[in-house]
Amino acid sequence: DTGVSQNPRHKITKRGQNVTFRCDPISEHNRLYWYRQTLGQGPEFLTYFQNEAQLEKSRLLSDRFSAERPKGSFSTLEIQRTEQGDSAMYLCASSRTGVRGESPLHFGNGTRLTVT
Amino acid sequence: GESVGLHLPTLSVQEGDNSIINCAYSNSASDYFIWYKQESGKGPQFIIDIRSNMDKRQGQRVTVLLNKTVKHLSLQIAATQPGDSAVYFCAENWVSGGSYIPTFGRGTSLIVHP
Fold first, then answer.
1. Strands across the sheet with B19-24, in order?
2. Cβ proximity of B102 and B91 under 8 Å
3. ∠ CA(B66), CA(A92), CA(B6), 5° rounding?
4. Residue B7 pLDDT exceeds 60
5. What is the mean pLDDT of residues A1-18?
6. Nearest to A41 among B93, B97, B106 (CB)
7. Residues in chain A within 8 Å Cβ distance of B109
8. Does the pLDDT value for residue A20 go beyond 90?
9. Per-residue pLDDT tens for B72-84?
């Protein structure tokens, strides 16, 4: 178990630029989640994949955000035309469908985005 | 010490004391609950989980209690250590459109004084 890996760890960008983050989940996990976390708050759901299919997307998610998981393994989250309000920690998590139902999420250490 | 969840987000205890962190969840259809610990600069780390067909589950130094009647969850940490200092989140899970989407509370900051 090598854990969930996220890259880059930090990203500083200017307003209006596009950014892309990568997540490599635990290899046998079929589910992958993206969350956003701001200071003093809990993680806020963005989107969710089961294998390569994007099954859920938060209604709060702007059209500027897009996520992919092309082969059911790694995932990318792209933010277009970044705004200062996009500054946050972006967390990726993975889990597997258990025999008894749900299993806990395993989180990466996140990508901290700062939009100047 | 005891936290009342969102209204008291910081809990300070002395090393060796027992800690109780509370969480009020929102959805009566939630059937799976998880506690996470988050240290500064890191992602949340799984501590313990409980399903709705149980009201208590014990791990190493931690116990989770579930009261479905009042939609309340608690995490008890025995003999709290400085390394337990972190923010603790509860997450509830329910099926929405065929998917489980874990939903997190705001969290409680635990500070352990040596």
1. B19-24, B72-77, B62-67, B56-58
2. yes
3. 40
4. no
5. 94
6. B106
7. none
8. yes
9. 999 999 999 999 9
- Is residue B65 classed exposed, middle or buried when 0-12, 13-18 and 19+ CB atoms within 10 A define those classes? middle
CB pairs under 8 A between A and B: 58
User: Residues A91-114: what's their mean pLDDT?
Assistant: 89
Cis peptide before A70 (omega within 30 of 0): no
| Cβ <8 Å between B46 and A105 | yes
Using CA atoms, how far apart are residues B103 and B114, in angstroms rounded to an integer?
A: 33
Q: Which of A56, A100, A108 sits opposite B43 (nearest CB)?
A: A108
CA atoms of B9 and B86, how far apart (whole Å)? 12
pLDDT of A98 over the 70 cut: no
A37-64 average pLDDT score: 91
| A43 neighbourhood in chain B, CB within 8 Å | 44, 89, 104
Whole-angstrom CA distances from A1 to A25, A68, B46, B64, B69 are 10, 23, 14, 26, 38
Check: CB of residue B12 under 8 Å from CB of residue B1.
yes
